UniProtKB/TrEMBL annotation, chains A, B:
This is asparagine--tRNA ligase. It comes from Camellia sinensis. GO terms for cellular component: mitochondrion. Residues 348-613 form the Aminoacyl-tRNA synthetase class II (D/K/N) domain. InterPro entries: Aa-tRNA-synt_II, aa-tRNA-synth_II/BPL/LPL, Asn-tRNA-ligase. Keywords: Aminoacyl-tRNA synthetase, ATP-binding, Ligase, Nucleotide-binding, Protein biosynthesis.
Amino acid sequence: MASEQQVVVKNPVTLCKYSKRVSLKTIVGSSDGGLELAGKRVVIGGWVKSSNEAALPAQEVGGGGSAAAVVTVGSKDVGCVEILPFFRSLMKALGGSQQQHHPSRGKLDSGVPKMPPTAVLQVSDGSCVATLQVRVDSSIWRPSEIMPTGTCIVVKGTLQQPAVKENKHAIELKVEKVIHVGAVDQDKYPLSKIRLPLEFLRDFPHFRPRTTTVASVTRIRNAFTQAAHTFFMNNGFLYVQLPVITTTDCEGLSEKFQVTTLLRKELKKEVISTGDSVRVSLETVKASIEDKNKLVEELKIKSEINKEKLISALQDLCNAYELAAQLEAREKANKSGTLVITERVDFSDDFFSHQTYLTVSGRLHLESYACALGNVYSFGPRFRAEKPDSKKQVAEMWMIELEMAFSQLEDAMKCAEDFLKFVCEWAIEKCSDDLKFLSKRADQTIIDRLQSMVSSSFERVTYAEAVDVLKQVKDKKFEKQIEWGVPLSEEHERYAYGGDEIYKSPVIIHNYLKELKPFYVRLNDDGRTVAAFDVVVPKAGTLIRGSQNEERFSVLNTRIKEQSLPKKQYEWYLDLRRHGTITHSGFSLMFDLLVLYATDLIDVRDVIPFPRSHGKANN
Amino acid sequence: MASEQQVVVKNPVTLCKYSKRVSLKTIVGSSDGGLELAGKRVVIGGWVKSSNEAALPAQEVGGGGSAAAVVTVGSKDVGCVEILPFFRSLMKALGGSQQQHHPSRGKLDSGVPKMPPTAVLQVSDGSCVATLQVRVDSSIWRPSEIMPTGTCIVVKGTLQQPAVKENKHAIELKVEKVIHVGAVDQDKYPLSKIRLPLEFLRDFPHFRPRTTTVASVTRIRNAFTQAAHTFFMNNGFLYVQLPVITTTDCEGLSEKFQVTTLLRKELKKEVISTGDSVRVSLETVKASIEDKNKLVEELKIKSEINKEKLISALQDLCNAYELAAQLEAREKANKSGTLVITERVDFSDDFFSHQTYLTVSGRLHLESYACALGNVYSFGPRFRAEKPDSKKQVAEMWMIELEMAFSQLEDAMKCAEDFLKFVCEWAIEKCSDDLKFLSKRADQTIIDRLQSMVSSSFERVTYAEAVDVLKQVKDKKFEKQIEWGVPLSEEHERYAYGGDEIYKSPVIIHNYLKELKPFYVRLNDDGRTVAAFDVVVPKAGTLIRGSQNEERFSVLNTRIKEQSLPKKQYEWYLDLRRHGTITHSGFSLMFDLLVLYATDLIDVRDVIPFPRSHGKANN
């Protein structure tokens, strides 16, 4: 062990703000891997990602650490901790192999004298992809207490070139004092040295960020967030905090979550009464009504696709109701028994005295600020109470929305393109290590893909052209045949952009058929198409949906009527056309999908810190 | 009028990004008020804030505009638009005087020949406090169409020194072409040239940002938002988007909103029954069912043509059946003398299969990211379903939360102080005009107050010291007597900090009695106090609540038990102590209160774009 006198202590390394430690990025994040910091004394903190025991040859113990032999326990893939029973079975199910060695119980290669071992830890503090190699001699701390994956340590020591020459680490920390050990309950800790499947990690959102993958995803999310705010700051946009609780339905189509304080009271009422009369035949019909109702709800979500099915389901439901009514009448004639039914919900008792929802989109609200302040944006959570039909949707997702007064479709498309290029360039610059790490999963380096987004000029096609191009495809049979009037589905997008079959760069599809877009999008002069656009990128599909919104009162009013929307709800929105109307355009960017695109992961739940999906909202 | 040849056209002024106009800030926001831009030709857009008519003396009409006489119609306080009936009565109630002149009907001062008048408009586009004076000759556009407050115009013209010398404007725009006019329905438009009470404006959140006050508030909010993100970026914090929907109760005390999809069906019933608790008779509904059936049959014949209509008719019919069934049941229940009671809420049918809430605070979730990545923060909406007991609380408020691993109480207090200084300095730099404008309402200039926040050192006192100091107050009788163990209330804070009676600068009160703070705050060695702190500032009161959180499993576990909290809900939170625990601290900043503090307004609803308060969530 090098004595303190031998170490040349230079100026201390910059401390991490608000904690008396040095961020590991300051050490191993530099281009030389921290080599120039050799000799400096630092305090660091972090979590053990993996560990080995190194037994120093007898003559080396206590001396300079230049020729120690690292003895790795077990094979490369073996975890240092006891594997949890449920993870063990999961791995078995997944076909993974398991050898269970515990380092303190492992056998050292023969030939090396059994000397007091040294713990060699790979430690991360989340500041960068690279870990710092930390060497703790057993004379300083018992190896078995600090070696398990997930242990938190705060240690003081001196940076030095590794005791054993190897390529991975330019520098390691030779510990002189252990300041803190946050132990791990190895029987219960879900993480290990082994890379775990993302599906498995979803059950542990509170531990996920300790994995390299989710840590990288988080840093990339952060970079995009910072880039977004910087873009808007540079371009004179004002940030507006829009409400999550709302009475306005932005689209008139999506299923919404209700916000209420009523359910609590009803639970109390339930305690008082338990009565429930059973009526077999009528109940059966009623149950079938519920099923039919569900089917109708499901079909409505895809009503654009299959109106025939929806019509037949609705007809079916009506018939069931009729039958139930008949049965009810018959029964009434026979009996005069009691019946317990659900009271109509009286929203005047609710917190806001009327029904409120979680917002689906903030664009309508944003318009009112644009029509006063010019360029505005928002960045917040948006909600849909729908069972997702793809891995790109959960109930709560973050969106960036912007709205610009005195602007038209062309301006919004230009802004969307500039925005994507800006944030991707930012991510490349700030997160190159993370992107390189995640590229190991991908078919090409993610950086190349982002770089091509930055340098390419987005192609622009009309919806009509996009349909034509897809209709001419001969070598591929689509599940859903593409037709004029049919929305482009994921499979169409995948074909057109995914494999670069048709388009080599991100594409902006614009001028959609009016039936395919919400009521507020501006009607084009042809009376059939509207000034909407989607930005579609390879793999992730549609990242941005934008439009020039209808500024003409009479046209907007007609569109609201045509779609049988509750006009009263939109009076305030119509007001913006009644008084001082102006052309304006904007877009919504699905932020989580942007992160999905840049990380090349598949399921959006893996890039959202605490995802909320159908049937699942833990924590 | 100056001919085009006479005007020296210099290089065009920088265009506003994504719209073919020049932002007014570019013109009137410069230190010389835009004087150096004289002679430049620009397109601008904005909303008319007020207007006058100027009649040019006969000999000047059509000539150079240097000696025109501005003729102001009516007195200084007279609005240019017809005042709404309800506003008229409001103003009467408030004691305001009203004279109703309409410029086009107003009489010009005698002695000036009645020549075609010129409209002189004060136009704002929200980019800055100052308005641009815009002069539109009647030969170009009818004055009466563009003069009403709230009219949106896009015009092209040449910047010139004002036709009439006056102090207010260094430059004005002489319009050559009117590109767009978004008229105002004067009978219905709520805003006017007169400054309106903030209470009145709350009913028009979609128009409020067109007032100078709310526009300034929005720009200051924006500056604080940008400053916050910049502070965190500079100090190595990662942004984490925390969920709004949650099952974890951060404090165990606050009333929460429930998130559900269970009330959906009841909503549909409401729509059919034409709402407002009007009881529809069973007969009426049965009759409507017949009608609806007929309609469906008719539509089926031409179903190819209009599927949408058929779907909506069928849905309508189903709903009617459902209502009929419900009414039938209710009638039956009533007849037989039984009470109609509410059915038990079965959350397994709910979207997430269990009960979920809107989050009260994100700090617990944030901890899991801090205990992996170091310094993290969030910025999002938080919710309390409580009737507010002050003007500083509404149901939905935005908070900035941060959490730092490897840090202690002292670090969080330092960070809180640095943060406030940084964002206040930023606001002073970026929003000086807005702060000056808002200072007109305040007792001192707001900038001085913010400046003293930036330059002062925050005083630190323990809770015990704060109580002692307040107990020694003799000249003031508090409504609630201060005692050891009693939380400091607004009146105590107001006394101590509001009038600078005791403390001259922001104060950090720390080490509260444990009963006064949530269960997760770290217990001090005395066993009676906890490592919590509040940052209290003059007028706004507590802006920040922070703490070092309990990292010791056994202590935390005991605290959960002591407070009889549902332990199961906190298992994941306890996990962070089971595995790799570490000291950590952080705080929550009530963002809306920071804006309230900096704008010197009184009611938080006036600084939130769309406030959600008890009984009120419009739009």
